[in-house]
Amino acid sequence: MTNPRLPSLNLIRVFETAARRMSFKGAAEELFVSPPAVSHQIKALEDSLGVTLFKRENRKIALTAEGKRYYLHVKRGLDLIDSATLAVRQQRRKRRFVVNTLPNIASLLLFPNIHHFQARYPDLSIQIESDVARIDFDNSEVMVAIRHECGNEPGLTYHPLVRIALTPICTRRYLDQHPGLRQADFSGCRLIKISGDTYQWPRWQAEWDARSEISDELVVSTVQASIEAVKSDVGVAMGYLPTAYQFMRRDSDLVLPVPDRVTRHGECFLTYRNEDAGDEVIKTFHDWVVGVIAQEWTSKKN
User: Fold this and answer.
1) What is the pLDDT of residues 120-150, one digit of tens each?
2) Terminal CA-to-CA distance of the chain, rounded, Å?
3) Last residue in a domain, options 47, 70, 92
4) Which is it for strands 263-273 and 142-148: parallel, antiparallel or unpaired?
5) Global pTM?
């Protein structure tokens, strides 16, 4: 809604041009109007503001004190409008590529490496959304999502990326203090659990018959938080393979006490709409993610 107290943008633009060039004739040439038209619009602006903006001396003009102050504010305002307009036009030329993914995948894989993918598509505006909830493609701008487990939505395509497995992880110091861990005996140990994945420990313990009586537990919110707790020798966490390999390559003190006891825990998929199956950017993103996973989540040490 137009503010009736504000002069029109056209009047302000004429004033800025005349003040910058210190000439009604010069302003007329720049704006492709006649000098009398410029003079008329300046007078209209002065009448609207109730102040005199220019001193008119023969064929010369000069800004009054009020005119000088007004010009400084007007110039800043017009500069902001010009910058905003340019930004919108540039953004319009860029295609938005919104990625929805799990928080640990975002922090471990995408954030540290996305600049490599961006370099291939410099005109692409990339947005990464990190959330444990499954995004609704019908009501979002998301182009691709990385999900744990495959859904049954008929309108979506799923490409397998990596299988996830479970096995405990702790530090060498903690393992030395609790040698029974090598036989999956957790007596006297503190279990570190993740609040968003309550099935990890029961599933692993049930498969490997490792149901020791344990009352000491610590619940954290993320995979990264569980690893930080492990590194502080707080207890033993459930490691997600192959994610755990990335942590182990960064910190040689982290170990898997029973590496031969591994429980499958689903699979991660790249998901997108069926109608986007032929999209070149999505195909390239898929291949790039596969490559990053192979690089970051390998069990081999550098």
Assistant:
1) 999 899 999 998 888 889 889 999 999 988 8
2) 62
3) 92
4) antiparallel
5) 0.66
